[in-house]
Amino acid sequence: MSASDVLHPDGSDYDAFLFAELGEDRTGAAVTVLSALARLDLEPWTEARELARLGREGAQVRLTTHFEAITDIPALALASEGRAAKLVSLLPLRAPLRVPKSLEADTNSFPKLSMSWTTIALVGVVVLAWFFYLAQTG
After folding, report:
1. DSSP labels for 67-131?
2. DSSP of 57-69
């Protein structure tokens, strides 16, 4: 898995949205949409995908609700609804249907793998039974 896949599991379709700056928190640290969603214990790429699926109006309402739950970013508290409307425009029009590479599975290799482990276990049982048989007769 490349570093790009780890940092952007759904590709770059949400980068403009997730890396948009929201302001500074009370400690002076810059806060992006990504870090704000993470502060709410939300998985940022999953939430961005869900917001894109909701459509503009639904996404704006949901994002505003998220922003209202964040109390340590003074600039965000002043205009959370207006900020949400601008940020929602950065989302793709439709949620991409791509599956992250980390979740892709080769369906042809899975049955072969489980069958080979089953075969190895069966051979192991037969070998152990043979040893016990030889130990009893010898």
Report:
1. HHT--S-HHHHHSHHHHHHHHHTTS-SS---PPPGGG---TTHHHHHHHHHHHHHHHHHHHHHHH
2. HHHHHHHHHHHHT
Written as one letter, the residue type at 90 is L
Distance in angstroms (rounded) separating the CA atoms of residues 66 and 42 = 10
What CA–CA distance (Å, rounded) separates 91 from 52?
A: 6
Give the tokens for residue 128: 């152990």
Q: What is the pLDDT of residues 122-135, one digit of tens each?
A: 888 999 999 888 98
pLDDT at position 1 is 45
Helix (H) or strand (E) holding 35: helix 33-39
DSSP secondary structure code for residue 40 in this structure:
T
- Please, what are the averages of pLDDT over each run of 10 residues along the chain (138 residues)? 52 84 87 90 91 89 87 73 82 63 52 66 89 86
